[in-house]
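Illustration 12: DUF4367 domain-containing protein.
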Amino acid sequence: MRRRFSFIAAILLCLTAVLAGCGTKDAESVVKDLDKTLSGLDSYTGKGTMTLFTGQQPLEYQVEVSYQKPSYYRIALTNAKKDITQIVLRNDEGVFVLTPRLNKVFRFQSDWPANQGQVYLYQTLVQSILLDNSRQFAVDNDAYVFDVMANYQNGSLARQKIWLNKSDYAPNKVEVSDANNAVMVSVKFDSFKFGSKLEKSVFDTQKNMGTPAAGGDQPTMADPDNGNANAANDNANAGSDNASASPDNGANANNPDYEATSGNSDDTNANADNPDKNAATNANNGGNDASNENAANEDSDGAMAPADHAEGTFTGMDPTYFPDGVSEVDNQNIVFGGNPGIMIRYSGTYDYTLIETQPKDVAVSAVKGELKDLGFTYGLLSGDEQKTLTWTYEGTEFRITSGNMPEPEMIKVAQSVQGEMSK
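Figure caption equivalent — predicted structure in token form:
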């Protein structure tokens, strides 16, 4: 009798082991499946919450991601408390960063996101698993968990854990950590769907700006290759009346890669139909924000003026990160592009200037530069010897300019700018 019970117990244990193993695969099988999934990927949509732990306080953003084969992308980052949304698009015309609230459009000639990993893009997550031969694998309830190397612009991000649904390999959660295993970025997906049917309008620039495709008060984008920098030298004096009317006047002779055009859409047509006016505006609007010594002394018709020309007040935000050996030199109120702002100069190991303004005018820009992921937003890195990193956050436009500051350090400073300025 005992033998019979022992035999039955052994069968039950075997059945339990088999049932427990159902639906569970080893790392090699999952990796092969992921490779097939990535190869056959046509489209997907996802929504979730991204939390950044890089500042003094955690920052939360709602993330919406859409992808359509072969290379259409739409990413919306929204700060719910501030009701601010920034959208990144890739379509047939190029790569765009949109800030609808400011009617601002940046266009890039870039192969993004192929050259830049994004923590909320499925392709980036799967590629990091496929490429890391030292990957670690575990099973957590209904998810497969991979611990792999992180490959992002922020060099302090060392590793990431990726939770994938057992059923369809959709992402559940991502945690990116630094070298000390402290979580710096997390993304929790509320929903993720493969094979989504997406209309072409999802990736349309004008539709995402909330403006009609033609006519009306819509953003106008100049061609960044239209040679404005050369024409600007011949028309510099003609555009002084327009120079202080626009908040995004970053183009100048010392920074030809930053060929931004901006102004009020009612009276400025920065396009190929009006190249002289466009060039003249570019020549005068930029001033020379790369120059620490002369920036505050520009005439009020240029990009920058002393604070006594300002109308209204402006409260800036204070960076909490300083590179070793760097200290603040001075802090002064200015007018930049016709808007009140502040300029802070730093010196030491690196010399750089931080300019902050709050644009009020309608501004549009088509620029040459590199798209940089700052985590909470996207920035533009432009220039050669003098580099400028420009970004927008909570309605404020920031720009860091330096001739000797490494790009990773510029990004760290940018990521630390938060909170009201203490003066």
